[in-house]
Amino acid sequence: MSQAQPQSICILRLSAIGDVIHANAMASELKRQYPNCQLTWIIGKVEYQLMKHCQGIEFIVFDKGQGWRAYKQLAKDLKGRRFDLLLHMQLALRATIASTLIKAKRRIGFDKARVKEGQQLVTNETIQAQQHAHVADGFMAFLAAIEQRSDVLPATGWDIPVPEADKRAAQALLKADKPYFAICAAASKAERNWTTEGYAAIADLAISKGYQVVLCGSPAEPERNLAKSIQAHSNNHFDDLVGKTTLPQLLHLLGQVDVVMAPDTGPLHMAVSQGTAAIGLYAHSNPLRTGPYRFRELTVSVYEQCIAQQTGQQWQALRFGKRAKGEHLMEQISIESVSQAFEKAHQLVATKQKTATIETNE
Question: What does the record list as coiled-coil region(s) (predicted)?
Answer without folding.
Answer: none
